[in-house]
Amino acid sequence: MQFRVPKGTTDIVPDVAVKWQYLERKAVELFKTYGYKPIITPIFEHTEVFTRSIGSSTDIVQKEMYTFEDKGKRSLTLRPEGTAPVIRSYVEQNMNQLPQPVKLYYTGPMFRYERPQAGRYRQFWQIGVEAIGSDDPAVDAESILLLVNYFKAVGLKELTLYINSMGCENDRPQYIEMLKEYAEAKRESLCNDCVKRVDLNPLRLFDCKNETCQAVMADAPKLIDHLCESCSGHFDEVKHYLEMQCVNYTIKPELVRGLDYYTKTTFEIVSPLLGAQNAIGGGGRYNKLVEEFGGPSTPGIGFALGTERLALAVEKEGVFDVNENSTEVFIAVADPAAKHAAVNILYQLRSNDISSDIDYMNRSLKAQLNAANRRGIRYFVFLGSRELEAGAVVVKDMEDGAQVEVKLNELVEHLTGLVGAAK
Ligand code: HAM
Hints:
alpha+beta, BirA Bifunctional Protein, domain 2, Rossmann fold, 15 helices, binds histidyl-adenosine monophosphate
């Protein structure tokens, strides 16, 4: 009996995991430069954390949540995204007592019961940030620039940045009425889901993937044309900061994003290197969310990027240059009688921070060399009884074939020099 991973999930095999770790490390380095600190929240939360914040009429809440009852009859949900848990934690941990804004980042798996396809999974990983406590448009720009600069730092070149503003609670009611009126008149052309959306939450009409619905919505009134003075001034400031950093953007009035909590700025970055699922990252402002969770009125903004999509784009761009975790030194044992001494040397090298390995499969010398070559190990140390007697080993650089005899008591120093120079 062989098992397969559940539909929509994948194993991140070692060669890929190394690349992911590199991407994560680069993100963390940059986040630190921007003053963000890590936060780790549970993988599951009370279901209401998500229904309240993401919105009951969104696709995520309606169709995609992994919700279950635990043995204590609590309704719990595997997190479909990271913002709601972070805000729940901000309120629960009284982070409003800390110097504001509180700037946090997180990485980890998220869960959505979506139809799997290239770049869309049921368990996928996100790297996200949230800056909670300020409505300053410079923070909006910081969030967008952080995402843009991170993508640049990992070598992505061709990206499109879309931005939009969704206004505030004052702009919405009038606009929603207008949108409803427009959609009512087009009811006949809309899909069944969209017909329901007209009554439930007309803003969600912009989420539909159906081409006919999209064509209808292309001519719909747009929120960005109905912003109050304050929201439109806020958006102008955000654009100004982006222009100051020479960041190109496209205003996309349909960019309402699939979550109900957004207010004012929303943004998304897409890569032309990906197929249908081309959004590598997106985010926006959520000025009512802390209140929704019972905290004091507190604005916030953040983004999340999808690690699978990012890794795919970086791979396609051909800029992955990671050869980490690869072992640097292989101790080839030419004679079983030298095994004990070889293992001793192995631990000596490792305790001197030289990444090294040895054969554990009872292979012949030739087979040992083949296996080590396949692993891409650069330096080989040859050890047999003769070498032991002579108190010296042969060290060979597999890249240029150069080999030298090195005294056993000088081996650590010699290899430290070689490995250090190769780095
Ligand atoms: P989101 O747009 O739903 O936003 O997800 C962010 C990113 O996660 C997407 O751009 C995409 O790269 C990736 N992603 C989403 N769903 C999948 C999937 N099924 N398979 C693979 N990748 C996926 C959020 O989650 C918000 N919490 C972002 C945010 C943070 N807004 C404010 N702060």
